[in-house]
């Protein structure tokens, strides 16, 4: 039986995908039995044809539209045969031994989901552990409060500012750039909630996992380089809009409509605060100002209007 099914959702990212697959193939000492599944969301960069020629060993799930990150992972997981799922972004590149280490760590302890140490391309730590969002924690990020005390659990609790990311420990959730989780847990959860088109889908998944009693852990012995925003663009107006929409959707689903409304106002204030220095932030602020809560929750896809 296959130990691990690696699921990679790809959209207009062939060059990054080539490096991602190359990093997986470079680990010649791998002990786990691995299958790789790429879900291509109607990319126009020739990804599907390129995979057929250059990586015939990869199982391709070709979609006729971009259905979103969570939905794309659901399509890949549906054909997976592994006991473990490694959900991997196309802009994330595993370092040698990382996959085996994640599996070893998960099978040796209580972890049902585990994330690695993420690194920037220059080798610096990329903080990947998070506490579950609240209106206050979102405010500490969007209103720059965390910069007042970056190592404080109160003002930088969202990013685990009180934790140096230097030891294994249970956490609320890890970013979805690379996360290993039990396939049976994924199936019990019904996969990702496809109402989250992009962003917060892994937060929602791991929050629901926590409610079932599952544990998410961080394992710094496994290292993965991550070009954050390499596929979505970190600061484009559409990215900022979708991030805000997903925060609001999460607060409404796991908190209340009141919390979601307060979160919307905090997000709007944060975007407006940055607007003078960034056309993308300015565009996103205008977009959010035109959308009351119910409209945000009703929309399912990014919209530049």
Structure notes:
This protein has 305 residues and is of the alpha/beta class. The protein folds into two domains: 4-128 and 165-226, Spore Coat Polysaccharide Biosynthesis Protein SpsA, Chain A; 237-298. The protein has helices spanning 14-26, 47-54, 69-77, 98-108, 135-142, 183-188, 201-211, 237-254, 257-274, 279-289, 293-298; strands spanning 4-10, 34-41, 59-63, 84-89, 92-94, 113-119, 125-126, 129-130, 169-171, 173-174, 178-182, 216-226. Strands 1, 2, 3, 4, 5, 6, 7, 9, 11 and 12 form a ten-stranded mixed beta sheet that branches. The chain has a two-stranded antiparallel sheet with strand order 8-10. The longest helix has 18 residues, at 237-254. It is globular, with a radius of gyration of 19 Å. The mean pLDDT is 93.
Please work out how many helical segments DSSP would assign: 11
In sequence order, what are the helices and strands, one letter per element? EHEHEHEEHEEEHEEEHHEHHHH
- As residue ranges, the low-confidence spans are none
What's the main sheet like? 10 strands, mixed
**Cα distance spanning the termini:** 48 Å
Architecture of the largest domain in CATH? Alpha-Beta Complex
Number of domains: 2
């Amino acid at each position: 039986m296959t130990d691990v099914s690696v699921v990679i959702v790809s959209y207009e990212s062939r060059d990054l995908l080539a490096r991602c697959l190359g990093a997986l193939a470079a680990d010649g000492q791998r002990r786990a039995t691995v299958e790789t599944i790429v879900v291509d969301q109607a990319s126009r960069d020739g990804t599907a044809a390129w995979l057929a020629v250059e990586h015939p060993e990869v199982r391709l799930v070709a979609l006729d539209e971009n259905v979103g990150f969570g939905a794309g992972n659901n399509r890949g997981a549906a054909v997976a045969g592994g006991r473990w799922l490694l959900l991997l972004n196309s802009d994330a590149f595993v370092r040698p031994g990382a996959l085996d280490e994640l599996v070893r760590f998960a099978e040796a302890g209580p972890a049902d989901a585990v994330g690695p140490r993420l690194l920037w391309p220059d080798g610096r730590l990329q903080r990947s552990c998070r506490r579950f969002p609240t209106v206050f924690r979102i405010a500490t990020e969007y209103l720059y409060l965390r910069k007042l005390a970056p190592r404080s659990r109160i003002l930088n609790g969202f990013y685990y500012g009180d934790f140096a990311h230097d030891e294994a420990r249970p956490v609320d959730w890890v970013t979805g750039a690379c996360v290993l989780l039990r396939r049976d847990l994924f199936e019990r959860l019904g996969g990702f909630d496809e109402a989250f088109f992009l962003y917060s889908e892994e937060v929602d998944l791991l929050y629901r996992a926590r409610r079932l009693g599952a544990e998410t852990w961080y394992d710094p012995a496994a290292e993965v380089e991550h070009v954050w925003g390499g596929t979505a663009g970190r600061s484009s107006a559409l990215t900022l809009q979708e991030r805000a929409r997903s925060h609001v959707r999460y607060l409404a689903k796991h908190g209340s409509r009141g919390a979601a409304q307060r979160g919307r106002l905090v997000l709007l204030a944060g975007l407006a605060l940055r607007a003078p220095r960034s056309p993308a932030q300015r565009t996103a602020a205008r977009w959010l100002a035109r959308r009351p809560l119910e409209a945000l929750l009703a929309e399912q896809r990014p919209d530049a209007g």
